[in-house]
Amino acid sequence: MAEKLAIGVDLGGTKIMAGVVNLSTGQMIASAKKKTRLVADGQDLVKRIALVIDEAISDAGVDIKKLNGIGIGAAGMVDREKGILLAAANIGANDLAMAEPLQQQFGLKVKLGNDVEVATIGELAFGAGLDCDDFVCIFVGTGIGSGIVHNGEILRGYSGTAGEIGHMIVVPDGRDCGCGGFGCLEAYASRTAVARNCIFDINRGYESILRDKVDPANGGLRSKAIAQAYELGDSVAVRAVDHAACIMGIGLASVVNFYNPQRIILGGGFIEAMPLYFEKAEAEMRRRSLRIPSFETELVRAELGDYAGTIGAALLTK
Ligand SMILES: [Zn+2]
């Protein structure tokens, strides 16, 4: 029997990645990517996605008619039934019909999901959630998002927004957050929050090797730059990262207490760049959570890295 292949698209705020994925093994046959750019009009974005898909298909050298479909995981809120991207602040698109135009262009069925949801589906099928039916996948980067797997299925919640762990309030009347609220976890523990703390200290006159690396266009500071400064013992980076990891651990303790998952999977660019963030967050989580679930919940790293979203998106077509 021929192996089933499908296109997966990871549509994020900074890049669009498309891949041809083997649905039985999770193997990525070929992939292509382009920068997302803030787009003035949605049609431009859809065209850009189509270009990346074309490139991945031609690199893989597969017959388009043999593909199972196209799955897209978008960084925003989606209408899964209608295939519409409802709101995506980081991409700059609202109420954008995505499935229909791509379906017409490629003659393939198109399924739309949320980026964190599809990355969780990827980890469930081929990554760190492979042998586990109850887990929470948490991705730390520009923001913090999570996907919940319950009895082997994605738990979406009544309105389809379950898993917004980044907006769990950890400090009453705390820092303002992109969601319009105050004191949310992602305002303290994301890469953006760490960058903000570092820049705040630098502007107050503290010496730091990060001073020359501040890049307002890329969320302040890149994960790699922060990680390097941290490893060199840069006091500004150490203070910001340790504080973020501590608050992350407090958030994780609430997940352990409330949901009692078998496993928590931590992933995303910031986690991958910074092994000590993971370790410190784990220590805080164990110290703060209830004794019984604390001993039993496993905390592990995501395994599919940058490809989790693309692989998981392809699985939407199954
Ligand atoms: Zn928030």
Explain what you see:
- With 318 residues, the chain is an alpha/beta fold.
- The protein folds into 2 domains: 127 residues, ATPase, nucleotide binding domain (Nucleotidyltransferase, domain 5), CATH 3.30.420.40; 172 residues, 2-Layer Sandwich (Nucleotidyltransferase, domain 5).
- It is 39% helix and 23% strand.
- It has 11 helices and 13 strands.
- The strands form 3 sheets. Strands 3-2-1-4-8 form a 5-stranded mixed beta sheet.
- The protein starts with a strand and ends with a helix.
- Bound molecules: zinc ion.
- Zinc ion binds next to loops.
From the structure above, extract its key features.
318 residues; alpha/beta; Nucleotidyltransferase, domain 5; 2 domains; five-stranded mixed beta sheet; 13 strands; binds zinc ion
Would you kindly provide a brief summary of this structure?
39% of the residues lie in helices and 23% in strands. The protein has eleven helices and 13 strands.
Strand content: 15-25%
Helix content: 25-40%
Q: Can you tell me the CATH architecture of the largest domain? A: 2-Layer Sandwich
Over all CA atoms, what is the radius of gyration? 20 Å
Principal-axes geometry comes out as globular
The helix tally amounts to 11
CATH class of the largest domain: Alpha Beta
* Structural classification: alpha/beta
Order of helices and strands: EEEHEEEEHEHEEEHHHHEHHHEH
In which order are the strands of the major sheet placed?
3-2-1-4-8
